Amino acid sequence: MLSEWIDKIIHGDALEVMPSIPSEIADVVFWDPPYYLQLPKGKKLRRWKTLTDVSGVDEDWDKFSSFQEYDDFIEKNLTHLRRIMKNNGTIWIMGSYHNIHRIGKIMQDMGFWILNDVIWYKTNPMPNWTGVRFTNAIEFLIWAVKDKSVKKYYFDKAKAKEYSEDKIASCVWRLPICNGKERLKDHNNQKVHPTQKPEALLERVINVSVPVGGLIFDPMAGTGTTAVVAKKLDRHFLVIEKEEKYVNAIYRRLHTLNGDLISHIHTTTKPD
Predict the structure, then answer these.
(1) Integer angstrom CA distances of residue 196 from 6, 148, 184
(2) Over the stretch 108-117, which tens digit does the pLDDT of each residue have?
């Protein structure tokens, strides 16, 4: 039953869990996959002035042996995500210059029809400490439907226009990266997640593309920004997260949002 999948946190590996999820249940999929950001072996980012290391992404979930392994990972996930989307549903996929072009190519080869590439212009980006190239001040979101024939997907034009600094609904979103009180920290005052996305970003995604009461599915939820914003905006969510520490963070965030909500959310481990 569909009710078994609404407002759920699933603790498990997305590729192992997704085959059990019913087809065509999600109005929108939001996928923030690994960016494959790994530096060459032995290399570190250093701040020249203070000679201190820059904290990058070094988690196992971002490590792949080759571009081919990464591409295979993307295609396998997209195959499941396409099935879980409603026929008139849409999918948002995040990335940077490291991976977004590979993902776009794979999507087009699979038959997805790209509606927009939205540029997230960061108003407070991390500087390029090496000083040998431009600071990377943008990330990308690909917004797509299953195929070229899809027409009646949900898009709130008025909301989209509200978020634009232009007279039209622009595909450039100026937003700061996640920081301050919103950035989750552990007991050592270290970031819980290296790439936590700001709630303002998910607010735009959800308000413009998920109908009120609709379901947004996030297969790699991290610290649960998708779930938190969905509940704030009267939408339903279904999220999967592999790392236990991030699952715990999702619980804490939702409990802070609404103490009664926690009893209505189910967690399961990945299938045997």
Answers:
(1) 23, 32, 8
(2) 999 999 999 9
- SS3 assignment, position 158: helix
> Can you state the percent helix, strand and coil of the chain, rounding each to 5?
35, 20, 45
Domain residue extents for the chain? 2-264
Which residues lie closer than 8 Å to 105 by C-beta, 6 or more apart? none
Element (H, E) at 199: helix 199-209
Q: Answer for the pair 90, 144: CB distance below 8 angstroms, yes or no.
A: yes
- Kindly report, residue by residue over 167-192, the tens digit of the pLDDT: 889 999 999 988 888 777 777 777 77
What pTM, to 2 d.p., does this model score?
0.86
Class assignment of domain 2-264?
Answer: alpha beta
The torsion of the CA quartet 256, 259, 260, 263, rounded to 10 degrees, works out to 80
